[in-house]
Amino acid sequence: MFNLMTDSVIVGPDEPEYQILGYKLYRTCHACPQQYDVLDQNNKQIAYYRLRHGRFYAACPDYGGEVVYDANPKGDGIFDEDEEEMYLVAATMAVDRWVNRIIAE
Fold first, then answer.
1. Phi and psi of 35, rounded to 5°?
2. Which residue has the higher pLDDT, 101 or 9?
3. pTM of the complete model
4. Which neighbouring-strand residues pair with 34?
5. By residue range, what is the domain housing residue 45?
6. CA distances to 12, 35, 59 from 69, in Å
């Protein structure tokens, strides 16, 4: 079981690519796949986002974890400009629900 209080701390670059709902999204690969590490306010990784072959998903707390969001955007290995923000926000909302569920357990 994932424990938000004891999981390892990951410190990203100075500025995240995006900040959504208080979470910091650091792009770790720009295309093929486009992927992000998602950190909470304590710089702990709580999610991993990946877009490859037309499938975008969010896994918690990291790669290989529980898939909490899954979608099929137009982009194959990189988001189209008109869809990136929408999918990142939707995935982050799903991650936030996961975090709140873990806290409540």
1. -145, 160
2. 101
3. 0.86
4. 51
5. 18-104
6. 23, 14, 7
